[in-house]
Amino acid sequence: MNVMINSLPFLWQGLLVTLQVSAIVVVAAFVLGISLGVGLSFGPRWVAWPIRIYSDLIRGLPLLVLIFSVYYMLPLTGVNVTSFWAAIFALAAFQSAHVAEVTRGAVQSIPPGQHEAGKAIGLTFGQRMIYVVFPQALRRFLPPWINTVVSTVQGSALVSLVGIVDLMLAIQQVIGRTFKPMPMYILGALIYFAINYALSLISRTLEARFAYVRE
Amino acid sequence: MTDSTQRRNLFRLGGAGLTLAAAGAILDSGKAAAQAAPTSLLRTVLDRGKLIVGTGSTNPPWHFENDKGELTGMDIAMARILAKGLFDDVKKVEFVRQEANARIPNIVTGKVDIAIQFMTISPARTQLVAMSRPYYVEGAALMTAPKSKWPTYKDLLAAGKQARVSVLQNVDADTLVHNALPDAQVMQLDSQANVMQAVTAGRADAAVVDASTVKWLVKRNPGDYADPGFAWGAQLYGAAMRQGDQDWLNWVNTCFNVAMHGHQPEIYNAAFEEFFGDKPPVQKPGFPPF
Amino acid sequence: MSVSEPLVKVRGVTKAFGSNNVLNGVDLDVPRGSVVSIIGASGSGKTTLLRCVNLLESYDSGSIEVDGVEVGYDIADGRRRPRGERDLARIRADIGMVFQMFNLFPHLTATENVMLGLRKVRGMAKAEARATAEQWLVRVGLGDKLASLPIEMSGGQQQRVGIARAVAMNPKVLLLDEITSALDPELVGEVLKVVRELARDGMTMMLVTHEMSFARDVSSRVVFMDGGRVAVEGTPREVFGAPAQSERLRGFLARIELREV
């Protein structure tokens, strides 16, 4: 349909923003989440408890509330960021709590004997994580982690509510102009589906690659 | 030094001083003229060099993107009127896109200087924000499809309980519809686009939408939409600003007044015709209209 | 450090898990080059003692010195303070351990299992580490399993990899924690053969075991633990031969049906 074809350049711009926001959040949440997850699983109480509280608090809030809170409250603390970065901050905080939980689940499934063997040959904590625990935890980490990536892409649609022209807002703007919602929603759904389907294909490939690890 | 020399020197000094003052006034007329209170937004905006306006991007004919992806609409035109008044340049305005529920929060938290986003002036609202004089009077209107069973208002009224009417969901939506068609069935839907989609898909016989929307759509898509000829209600649309800033409010009102009734009507008249398909009353000399 | 000082010196070590006093004042010497077997009923504290030597378990009071260095604590401002992660790693690198459940790294081949410590702890270059690892694997009879994953090996083979992994690090003392208890009987022999050879070559070892005949054959000294203490200690002949010195030891050995007649 003509409407769909004419809208493509605008949707493309919106898609780029969606991908940009998602990529930044995924990377930030990955780094922060794994650190928090390791701290949660292996840290002393004064490290693990604050992380536990943070994780439960953040995951209990609807993402929308979080985004609006950061958007309006961050300037009050004197930190003046654009709405783009405020939204990313909120999304990353939310997802890092999820990634921390995924990490915890994955590393806690490693038998204690593995840690002991690592200690016995003189590996430090960091070395045990990198060479013994993470390679084995990877298989249990990947599927739920990909889920957080998918949920990040879906959650990124909420940035449209603070005025960032992502795919969702681009769709709304075209609908506003043309008054033909159905073709646009179908197109939008197809694009979001394509992204997430690609992600699940990547997930399956990654899982197969690491399948040799004995349960 | 003799007396006459002293007088001549004093005269020159005075002359130099006057010249400097005059030169200063001429060169710096913008700044010298705006003796606004130091905490007024008017001062801040002038110093900043551009106006920050909160508006939406999904509702024609008020604020939407045209085929080229440029933000346009009546609200945008009002913003450009302000920019011209401040900087003599319609381009010196930055738009912050916001949802309707962010209109007041973004004003109150200072994220935008002014919100121009089809806001109805109401006593409740103006307890939270200051609003400008009205720049349009919006009404509700019926809209049908060209192949409708009941093409005119009389027909719809006669259809009584059989008429199905779609409307944007709202606390007063049922009342709104029944003010026009007392016996009709009401379908409340979640967005303007879906309200109209219901009519084109035949799931509703008529839609209640903004009067300006009916004008806009029927003008652009006569194949899809028709006007059965009934509008009612009157809502005053104004721009919203922070409370407690009299200088800013006064200046905005002045700018709007001059654009609507005075000697700088070009932007307003052109926008009025483009977006509502009507010509506003001509600005003419004689008794002031307000 | 004079050669006559024991390599491992345990003095008055106590440890409690909650209200359970697992170690109640253990004193023990392990001379350099000797093999000390620790026997006793389950709950006697023998495995806990072994795991204290490389600080897999902490000890509450007392002292454990390996080659003159207190493993669990250092002295700062005249006070005892538990060792930090870096210190522990350094000390543990010189103490080898072989586990009952093997604990091989399942994502690494036999060679890679042995190489990991060599590369990351001893800092060897990849080629040198690989050569050393392969040498040790051949030495324990696994020359044909260099590239195999643990899942592809029998229990006996995995345990031999475990031994190679521990000794390749060139430890001062080797701790063996019931290393044949999880093996099928027909695989026990190949593992004990490797241990015998290590003993013959002069490796200092502390062995917790249920294999009484093996303990008798290979040990320099045998220690019988009971109730968290060393109850009986002596040469294999003294401990296993009649007359048995302690009632408890007699009872224990009788249950295992090993008596010198």
Would you write up a description of this structure?
The complex is a heterotrimer of chains A (215), B (290) and C (261). Chain A has 215 residues and is mainly alpha-helical. Helix content of chain A is 81%, strand content 0%. Chain A has 8 helices and no strands. The longest helix of chain A has 41 residues, at 2-42. The model of chain A has no long low-confidence stretch (mean pLDDT 90). Chain B has 290 residues and is of the alpha/beta class. In chain B, the strands form 2 sheets. In chain B, strands 1, 5, 6, 7, 8, 9, 10, 11 and 12 form a 9-stranded mixed sheet that branches. In chain B, strands 2-3-4 form a 3-stranded antiparallel sheet, covered by helices on one side. Chain B is elongated. Chain B starts with a helix and ends in a 14-residue tail after the last helix. In chain C, the strands form 3 sheets. A 6-stranded mixed sheet of chain C has the order 8-9-10-3-11-12, sandwiched between helices. In chain C, β11 (221-226) and β12 form a beta hairpin. In chain C, α3 runs parallel beside α5, α4 packs across α5 and α5 runs parallel beside α6. The longest helix of chain C has 16 residues, at 185-200. Chain C is globular, with a radius of gyration of 19 Å. The mean pLDDT of chain C is 91. The A-C interface holds A 113-114, 116-117, 119-125, 127, 131-132, 135-136, 212-214 and C 54-56, 85-86, 88-90, 92-97, 99, 101, 103-107, 116-117, 120-121, 149-151, 165-166, 169.
